[in-house]
Amino acid sequence: MLKALTKTQFLSCLGLAAMLAAASPALALDKVSYGTNWLAQAEHGGFYQAVADGTYAKYGLDVTIVQGGPNAANSALLISGKLDFYMGGPQGEISAVEQGIPLVDVAAIFQKDPQVLIAHPDNGVDKFEDLAKLKTLYLSKDGYLTYFEWMKANFKGFKDEQYKPYNFSPAPFLADKDSAQQGYLTSEPYEIQKQAGFEPKVFLLADNGYSPYSTMITTTQAMIDGKPDVVQRFVDASIEGWYNYLYGDNTKANELIKKDNPEITDGQIAYSIAKMKEYGIIESGDSLDKGIGCITDAHYKKFFDEMTAIKVFKTDTDYTKAFTTKFVCKGTGMALKK
């Protein structure tokens, strides 16, 4: 028969159990890195939110956000295995397929690309097609080779003679009423309004048929094959972060954004959030009923077809290698929307 423990023995056993528990390490979080494509801003807010409010930790992840910028090479760091995830886009991933580089989009946070063309308010430009009447369009080299080619193929009147290089300053545009310039819906219009004192005309290319996803969660095929659970948890936590950023208290996330990018202002952050909501940058199309981050073959193929039509991609490229739908479109986080 087992003998009953004395009070002293019982307390000794409790003490030993407590010591063993204290000595046992807590369950370690999986360390994950995510590289953004530019300096910290509200357009990255959901990722910062998931760090700030503990959502990543809840999913067993210790996430480091590596901000991009003019001298960053985060896409190259992903390819070399020094980052786990990157804020890519379908053009980059389809190009990678053509080069035999196994990069894969696993979530599309922006259902609409925020690319816009910006015009003066009093020069007769009332709809997208009217931009073809202008003498000058200030565009980046990448814009000239992609969406301007798309514009020429799909709308009458646009011509190469309109093109002038965009030097990322609004000064030439502001000095010339017979011009328009490229920009991001969430940033350049705000700066122009501040500097010039007028509200410019803004034309979102996505609302006129241009269809790339943007602000992706991109990883490598090796990561998907080797750590699919980590990929799923990072995607789910990031999606929850975005719902919380848009509809919850985003104060701490914005503090982290300003810590990484001290030049950004509260006014710019508020403007960006408002425009993302107003234009359905994150919530539109498939994401409305399937959740933020949704990727579909139909949407991805539409962009691929647009780009093959203007010879950006080869027609025989297997675009389906550039993305997977297995981690998204599950309604994750939708209950958090208030």
UniProtKB/TrEMBL annotation:
<dbReference type="InterPro" id="IPR027939">
    <property type="entry name" value="NMT1/THI5"/>
</dbReference>
<protein>
    <submittedName>
        <fullName>Nitrate ABC transporter substrate-binding protein</fullName>
    </submittedName>
</protein>
<feature type="domain" description="SsuA/THI5-like">
    <location>
        <begin position="42"/>
        <end position="243"/>
    </location>
</feature>
<feature type="signal peptide">
    <location>
        <begin position="1"/>
        <end position="28"/>
    </location>
</feature>
<dbReference type="InterPro" id="IPR015168">
    <property type="entry name" value="SsuA/THI5"/>
</dbReference>
<dbReference type="Pfam" id="PF09084">
    <property type="entry name" value="NMT1"/>
</dbReference>
<keyword id="KW-0732">Signal</keyword>
